[in-house]
Task: structure prediction
Amino acid sequence: MSKMTNIPAATGADTENKSMLSIRNLSKHFGSVHALDHVDLDIREGEFFGLLGPSGCGKTTLLRILGGFETPSAGEIMIDGQDVSHIAPNRRPVNTVFQSYAIFPHLTVAQNVAYGLRKSGLSKEEIAAKVEVALQMVQLDGYGSRGADQLSGGQRQRVALVRALVKEPKVLLLDEPLGALDKQLRESMQLELRALQKRLGITFVFVTHDQEEALSMSDRIAVMAEGRVLQVDTPRGLYEVPASRRVAEFIGTMNIFEARVSGHERTQVALDAGPLGRVLIEPANAARPEIGASVSLGVRPEKLSITDAPRGAGFNSVEGRLSASAYFGDRNHFFVELDGLPRPVSVATQSDALAGTLPGVQPNGEAVRVWLNWPVAGPVLLPAE
Amino acid sequence: MRQRGIQSWLGLYSLLYVAFIYVPVLFLPLFSFNDGIYVAFPLKGFTTRWYQEMANNTALIDALKNSVLVGCTVAVISTALGTLTARALTRYRFRGRKTIFGLIVVPLVIPFIIIGVALLVLTNRLGIEPSLWTIGAAHLLIATPFTTLIMISRLEGFDASLEEASQDLGETGWMTFWLVTFPLAVPGIVASLLLSFTESFDEFILAFFLSGNEVTLPLYIWGQLRFPERLPMVLALGALILAASFVIVSFAEWVRRRGVNVKGK
Amino acid sequence: MENPITSPPEPRTLALVSKGRPRRWRNRNNNAYILLSPTLFLLVGVMCLPVGMLVAYSFWTQNFTQIDTTFTLANYAAVFEKEIYLKILLRSIAISLGVTATTILLAYPIAYFIAFRVTRQKMLWLILITVPFWTSYLLRVFAWKVILGYNGVINSALIWLGLIDAPLEFLLYNPMAVVITLAHAWAPVAILPIFVSLEKIDRSLLEAATDLGDTRFERFMHITLPLTVPGVTASFLLVFIPTVGDYVTPQLVGGPDGMMIGNLMYTLFFRVNNWPMGSALAIVMIFAITAMGAAIWMATARARGKVQ
Result:
């Protein structure tokens, strides 16, 4: 029986790899503003780790502290066992890819990439060789002698990437690396970045506010808000088993209903869910709150289905009115209103079959009455907030 | 963590630099109250008689009047020209725009002595006698590029759609100018007037080459420099001019820079 | 922010004509010329024509009070043959270079200070520094004459404090006094272009350099300094060009050793009364300044182009 707390349970994570980056009790204030509040985080070697959250949640501050551009007000950072909390950025085994890419405009591409190698003790030929290999890695071979001010946005991003990677850091930090790119470029770069990371085996930590990007690229994600970590889990874990209402609403869309626990039945929980009536749930997060507790019931739109009669066993059903629909090409969204609910329920389905049979509003002006179904197994129970 | 602000070597250097700029000049007012003819330490006591001597000096007062006259004339005309020019350059695309802009900026980079002798040569050839007019014309030449640049930076940030909206609502071009453009351009105009006045008022070398019988204040000062007993009075005059210029220019700069943040948006 | 002196503003509206527009729009471009005409008239009348006349004079000769307008190159020949002209011209250029170098070296650190170390009162610092430039140049030079003089501030103070017995004579009436005075006079102005250049630097470039291993000094040499080449070039030209032809400072504090070409021109025009010779000298001076300015401009063009 787990109590309803905020401590997430990591699901399906690989616990064999050692911890590369340990953040303990990290806090940072700017005057009276708490940018980071007692953050604890463990990032494993070779992980592609995402820091996700809305603006102002502290993710960028955290990244900058990791890079050494801000000092923490409290707490410590260990990289591969070494305490780096107070080491200057130019001496940490960490490199950053900046949001603006920060390509030096007065140098050539090759000079940019070689910039960090000047003090490495390598000969000029060795450096040139490394630069060439690096450029090949991102399909920019031959661009070495080009002036950095002549590159496109995507090219600059790649130069920034290999400029940092060529120093073989233990951790690579990326600040909104794909934010400035247009949609198509962004999607192809997401795949490229992930492939590159897997090939190199270097630990990547990146910051983004785009949850789809985080979900598609990361091995694990830390969802942050107001300077705290809300949950750390794999993308699937965050989506299927969010630990709190906030995380649930931040990742994808979630229908949330208020309910009260009315009973337990083996692995299932019975709820009194107001307009939804009596509902039986086998929670995905194995929650088992006490009888009488207030909870939030969360159901993803794609788990819901619309029929003209209750689906029967294994499903909860309630009658409602179809109020609107939206077409997104690859899927349809339907909105079902129920008496007593402040907002309509969002239903997503790929089936086109419904579109024809449910025109929305009948000729007599009344909305079509439908049955809303969702399976017993699948929804999550979250603490009421 | 390196120190920010004043408490650092760089900050110390900067303070010294500012001191370096101001201190030599501050000796003038210092010794203008000194009860002695020589500008030398030790100080001999406080007096204001040099200032009183100034007030009784008719030649000085005439020169002052001339300077004010030329200065005001130059200020008004150069500001007007600067505004018109700035408007042409910021509102319209036309052939030769870049060349004309370059031409307008040229007086800023020509050494004044060249302008002085060139004008001297031309006026002499044309039989024009050097006078306050010739001085004024020269001052106009060097002031207009400044006022133009000031007005350009003022008008450039100006949202063209404001004027179009006004015209859309029925105002003629002229009224639009008065009701919409002008009020927003006022800080630039004020700064232009003040700065061009000051430049003309303090200007020496062009006046030196182009003056006739009537002198401006800097020329008067120059003439007094060879009389040691007049020195303290010159210091007093200089101190007053410096103080007045400082106040005027500070105000003008403040107006100009403040105005830059206020757009019609 | 583009350099406001070398590039014209971009017009906010296009006053171009297309066939479908109503008739009254067709003359809009002419409005620009109408607005510009007084200023153009001023420029032509008070700058172009006079300089043209100056050029003309340089090819003529002076016979007491009359001007002989037969074309001759004798004046230019004199400039290059008579030792004094070239000597003074070269000395003027040398002094000017000294002044420019001094002002830039002194101005750079404070421009850096205001750009990087001052957060909230940048405007205050800038105004404080530039305002003195707008006050009477004559008085500022005169202040130095009074400071460096035989019975001046420095000497009298040192004697009064008992540090020396007799006044120092080497302070005034030499090229060094000229350099000090001019550097002081132009110090306020040299800061501005350098400051603008420093402000424009994207701060993330500096963080990237640090991230890649640079110490603060290395970062300054490799990133900051190269990126300020446009500003330093502008400062250079801003100070160099006017100081070559300066008259007041050498006259008041230069003495015979510190005489510069401006003084020579004054002598030719007002003492010797040889206007054609003075004109020729003026033209030669213009050429020298333009040539050097152009040389600097082109030498830094590539470096500047990459940054701007």
